[in-house]
Design brief:
- With 484 residues, the protein is α/β, with parallel strands linked by helices.
- It is built from 13 helices and 19 strands.
- The chain folds into two domains: 151 residues, Leucine Aminopeptidase, subunit E, domain 1; 324 residues, Aminopeptidase.
- Helix 8 links the parallel strand 9 and strand 10.
C-alpha cells in the first residue's frame, strides 16, 4: 500500500478519475458549477437532500468508475483539524476499488494559510504501513493529483515531506523486532544518515569506559550486543551559536534484566527505544528541510538482558557526572541510560536547552493514558513552548510536578542516589527527579515521558496502529515556531 501525491496546473487528460471538492459546513454547492458538469451538479444537489451531512466526507457514485467526494470544512479550523480531515479521507478511500483521485484546490473557500498542504499531510501520515516482514504485501497504490492555484509552495512541500520522512523513519525504527534492530545494527543505520548532511559520531563501549559512562554501560553489560552513545549534529547556521539538544533513550529490547519483567506483553518492549527513534527522526527531518538552526541529537543504545555478566540489584555504579547510583531495580534502566547521555550532552555541547524523550515509566500511562505525554521541566519558558506546539500538532504534553521534596524518595543510604523509589507512588515524577540531578549547569531542560504515546495497538488520528512516531512533529514545530 502506498500513496503518491503530485501537482498539476489543470485537469489531467483522463477525466474519469474520482474528483474531490471542498464545500462549507452547510454543503453549499453554488461555487462548484464551474468544476463539474450540469448533470453532475443536478445529481449531487438532489442526493444531498437525503444525504447524511453529519459526516465531513460525502461520496457520490457518478458511474462505476467515478466518484465525486465532497469534503466539508467549518470556519476557524486549525491546521491539525485539516490534517485530521485528510487522514479520515484516506481511511475511507484506501479500501475502495478506485485508486486515482483528483483534488481541486480551487474549490476551497477557506482562506486559512496552506490548508491543502496540511490536508495532504494528514493523508500521507495516515497512509504509513509497516509490512516489511509480510510475505504478501498490499500492492495497491493510491494516486492523488492536486490541481489549481491553492497548492503548497515548493518550500512548504519540502517541509511537509521532510517531516513525513522523519516521522516514517522513526516509525520504521520502532516497528523493527529486537532480533533485527539490536544496538549494533542501530548504530550502523545511524551512521548512514551522514548522506543527509548530519555529522555522526559513535562512541563504543571502549570509548565510554574511558569517559566513565558506567550508568549507561551497566544497563547493557548482560547482553552479547554492544552498547553505544551516538551523536548527530546538524549545523544549519553559519555561526557557532549554541545548539538545541535532543536526547533519546534507546533500549532496543528491555527484558528488565535480573529484575525480569512478566512474560505477558514483554514482546512490546521492542519499542522501548522509541525516545531515541523520535530524536533520530527529528534530526533526519531537520537535515532534509535544511533547517536554519544548529541542533544536536544524542541517543544511548543498549539492550537490557539477564545474563552471567548482567547488572545486579544492589550494585553501585559511578556515572559520567561523577555521581554514584545504587541499582535497586534493573528494570529502571532508561533513566540510567539517559543520565550519562544528558550530562555528556550538557558538558560537550553547552546547548540552549535539552529535551529528552523516553518510554520511561508505566506510571505515566496510569496518569495520562495515551492522550498526553508527561512533561517535566526546570524551565517555564521551555515548558510553555512545548505545551503550545503540542496543541498545534495534536501531539500534546501535560506538565507534571518536580519538587525538591521528592528527592528524599531517591536518596540512597549507600550512594548519592538510588534508581527507584521503593516507598511507592509518584513513579514518573521520581524518575524525572532522578534525571534532573544530571543537569549540572542549570541548562533549561525538559523531560518527555512518552510511554503512553509511542505505540498504539488500535491506531490514532494520524496513524493506523503500531508505532506512532510521536514527538517528531512536535519538536519540528518547536524548532520552526521558536528557534528558526
Amino acid at each position: 500500500m502506498s500513496l503518491k501525491i503530485s501537482y498539476k496546473n489543470s485537469y489531467p487528460k483522463n477525466k474519469i478519475d474520482n474528483l474531490l471538492l471542498f464545500v462549507d459546513e452547510n454543503f453549499d454547492l453554488s461555487h462548484l458549477k464551474k468544476y463539474i458538469s450540469v448533470n453532475e451538479y443536478a445529481f449531487i444537489n438532489d442526493l444531498l437532500k437525503v444525504s447524511d451531512k453529519k459526516s465531513n466526507n460525502v461520496f457520490f457514485n457518478i458511474s462505476s468508475k467515478k466518484k465525486i467526494i465532497l469534503v466539508s470544512t467549518k470556519k476557524n479550523l486549525k491546521n491539525s483539524d485539516f490534517e485530521g480531515l485528510g487522514a479520515k479521507l484516506y481511511d475511507q478511500i484506501k479500501d475502495i476499488k478506485q485508486s486515482n483521485f483528483i483534488v481541486n484546490s480551487d474549490s476551497i473557500k477557506n482562506t486559512s494559510k496552506n490548508i491543502i498542504g496540511y490536508f495532504l499531510h494528514g493523508m500521507k501520515l495516515k497512509s504509513y504501513i509497516f509490512e516489511k516482514y509480510k510475505s504478501k504485501k498490499k500492492n495497491k497504490r493510491i494516486t492523488i493529483t492536486v490541481i489549481g492555484k491553492n497548492i503548497p509552495t515548493k518550500a512548504d512541500q519540502l517541509k511537509f515531506t521532510a517531516i513525513e520522512e522523519g516521522t516514517f523513519y522513526a516509525r520504521d525504527l520502532v516497528s523493527e523486532p529486537g532480533n533485527i534492530l539490536h544496538p549494533d545494527e542501530y548504530a550502523k543505520r545511524l551512521n548512514t544518515l551522514k548522506k543527509f548532511g548530519l555529522k555522526i559520531n559513535i562512541l563504543n563501549e571502549q570509548k565510554m569506559k574511558k569517559l566513565g559512562m558506567n550508568t549507561l554501560l551497566g544497563v547493557g553489560q548482560g547482553s552479547i550486543r554492544g552498547s553505544y552513545l551516538v551523536t548527530m549534529e546538524w549545523k544549519g547556521l553559519k555561526d557557532n551559536s549554541k545548539p538545541l539538544a535532543f536526547v533519546g533513550k534507546g533500549v532496543c529490547f528491555d527484558t528488565g534484566g535480573i529484575s525480569l519483567k512478566p512474560a505477558k506483553f514483554m514482546e512490546d518492549m521492542t519499542y522501548d527505544m522509541a525516545g531515541s527513534a523520535t530524536v533520530v527522526g527529528l534530526m533526519k527531518s531537520l537535515a532534509l528541510k535544511k533547517a536554519k538552526v544548529n541542533a544536536i541529537g544524542v541517543v544511548g543504545l543498549v539492550e537490557n538482558m539477564p545474563g552471567g555478566n548482567a547488572q545486579r540489584p544492589g550494585d553501585i555504579v559511578k556515572s559520567y557526572s561523577g555521581k554514584t547510583v545504587e541499582i535497586l531495580n534493573t528494570d529502571a534502566e532508561g533513566r540510567l541510560v539517559l543520565a550519562d547521555a544528558i550530562t555528556y550532552t550538557e558538558k560537550k555541547y553547552k546547548p540552549k536547552f535539552i529535551v529528552d524523550l523516553a518510554t520511561l515509566t508505566g506510571a505515566i500511562i496510569v496518569s495520562l493514558g495515551s492522550e498526553y505525554a508527561g512533561l517535566f521541566s526546570n524551565d517555564d519558558k521551555l515548558s510553555n513552548q512545548l505545551i503550545d506546539v503540542g496543541e498545534k500538532t495534536e501531539e500534546k504534553v501535560w506538565r507534571m510536578p518536580l519538587n525538591k521534596n521528592y528527592d528524599k524518595l531517591i536518596d540512597s543510604k549507600n550512594a548519592d542516589m538510588q534508581n527507584i523509589n521503593y516507598v511507592g507512588g509518584a513513579g514518573s515524577t521520581t524518575a524525572a527527579q532522578f534525571l534532573q540531578r544530571f543537569i549540572l549547569n542549570k541548562t533549561p531542560w525538559a523531560h518527555l515521558d512518552i510511554a503512553g504515546m509511542a505505540f498504539s495497538k488500535y491506531g490514532g488520528a494520524l496513524n493506523s496502529g503500531g508505532a506512532t512516531g510521536y514527538g517528531v512533529r512536535l519538536l519540528n514545530k518547536l524548532v520552526e515556531d521558536y528557534y528558526e
